[in-house]
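Handoff note, outgoing to incoming analyst
You'll be picking up this chain. Sequence as last confirmed:
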Amino acid sequence: MAIHLTKESKVLVQGMTGGEGMKHTRRMLAAGTDVVGGVNPRKAGRTVDFDDRAVPVFGSVADGIRATGADVTVVFVPPAFARSAVVEAADAGIGLAVVITEGIPVHDSVAFTAYARRKGTRVIGPNCPGLITPGQSNAGIIPADITKPGPVGLVSKSGTLTYQLMYELRDIGFSTCVGIGGDPVVGTTHIDCLAAFQDDPDTDLVVLIGEIGGDAEERAAAYIREHVTKPVVAYIAGFTAPEGRTMGHAGAIVSGSSGTARAKKEALEAVGVRVGGTPTETARHVLAVLEAGR
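Most recent structure output, in case you need it:
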């Protein structure tokens, strides 16, 4: 019951010895994540104690992979170093790089997402909460105690709305929840996750959370029409946002009718997606669709 992240995933944390890295590594370990090491060239050879587990620090991602077999890295480094951190991970052959860092220059995000793609590394983010497969593994900053394993897959631009929908549907549970980030350039899209959930035998329904700006949701609607047979329920944030002004995420800008919440809602509804007016209404749609399918 998972996409991209399972209980078998072995996780490195780039930036583990910093304040945010330490805090969230402890949370990931508490959620059952197999954190096998941190990466910091200046502290290589040390270990960091997290309650009942000592986690080694490696001088490079390549060293960490050789020593542990790691296949996931979570990036908590400052924005100025994010590009080099992802390039290093991709060069080392990591399969998945989860970039939590916000405030990365767009040209850096363009460069490292393209580079990682050429190297065969999937990037989630940047400026994202990461992803969680409840009961198995948690790579990032998503709270692990607000839901349980279940049949719903979730892909979201918004971290906060990810948490809210997880809580709203806590009695149903999730296969995997993926926060893809809301920056103008991200490594994994709604479509990528829709394709993975479509192929996951234990995901029965997909929740798609979008927001104003760009055309990602319209493109997702076109993909759903051609390729997705499972039910999809959506929520679009930003119905009250004024046109022509950047709102919230760096990618959320509306010009004329392009990128508006209404245009996205109409595109999704045209391919059979139920779109909620609020997160709570969206959760009710999910429950109704699941009940109808029983």
